Amino acid sequence: MDASTLTRDLLIALDPVEMAHAADLAPDPWQVKFLRSAAPRVLLNCSRQAGKSTMAATLAVHTALYEPASLVLLLSPSLRQSQELFKKALSCYRAAGGPVPSKTESALRLELDNGSRILSLPGKQDTVRGFSGVRLLVVDEAARVPGDLYFAVRPMLAVSGGRLLALSTPFGTRGWWYEAWRSQEAWERYEVPATQCPRISPEFLGEERRSMGEWWFSQEYECKFLDGETQPFGREDVERAFEEEVEAWDL
Ligand SMILES: Nc1ncnc2c1ncn2[C@@H]1O[C@H](COP(=O)(O)OP(=O)(O)O)[C@@H](O)[C@H]1O
Ligand SMILES: [Mg+2]
Predict the structure, then answer these.
(1) Residue 117 is inside which H or E element, if any?
(2) Which residue in 47, 118, 199, 249 has the fewest CB atoms around it within 10 Å?
(3) Which residues is 102 bridged to in the sheet?
(4) Kind of pairing, strands 188-192 and 71-76?
(5) Is ligand 1 within 6 A of the CB of residue 27?
(6) Helix (H, G, I), strand (E, B) or coil at 123
(7) Domain 3-241: homologous superfamily in CATH
């Protein structure tokens, strides 16, 4: 290994921000803080497209690489979303130059020579049951992950003292993620409206506001928790607009 590769590997090992740089990302200020945080419990309440999944995937890979024998679980509401999130993790792992070789790679699983594993799971009780000693648990699209599932996975962190990152765009005034956000519990909280994302232009936001209307715009881009009773039109229409497949929960 030449000196420059060694220096690069060391920098990445010491600082997840360097790992984002290796993946050609220049993290936004909130992303820098998030990547360097050691808080055991973190809530990200962010606009769509703010970069929450990408940053969580970066931390997942960093943890697996530099905490040997660690188990990292990525939990998403649907199979498609877990595949997407895992792809982000895999591309981050590749961008880091594979400082720890992989043993197994599949569409939802990466196992490294240092004994660490990253598993991406769609949120169903039977798929998440039975894991323990989790070093890092990421819950993506957390507002759409049902409470019984969330309360089923939390104990997996107990013995390992693992970290929990719950990221989402708001989805109404209900559910565990909303309750956590407004609770007095010791979560580190990040609120990132679209106006704080340099990749989303004011022109685009203006267009979105006009086509979606105020209610949806506030929820999807301004981090607002809104009451379903005041909802002007169906969630399906908005989901279609985002071209995101949302599978029904099947518990
Ligand atoms: N700091 C950054 N620099 C450049 N691109 C970024 C950065 N953060 C996120 N992105 C890109 O923005 C897009 C949306 O990111 P994603 O993580 O999917 O957002 P979210 O999960 O918040 O909807 C992706 O294409 C991602 O690569
Ligand atoms: Mg996402």
Answers:
(1) strand 117-122
(2) 199
(3) 112
(4) unpaired
(5) yes
(6) coil
(7) P-loop containing nucleotide triphosphate hydrolases (3.40.50.300)
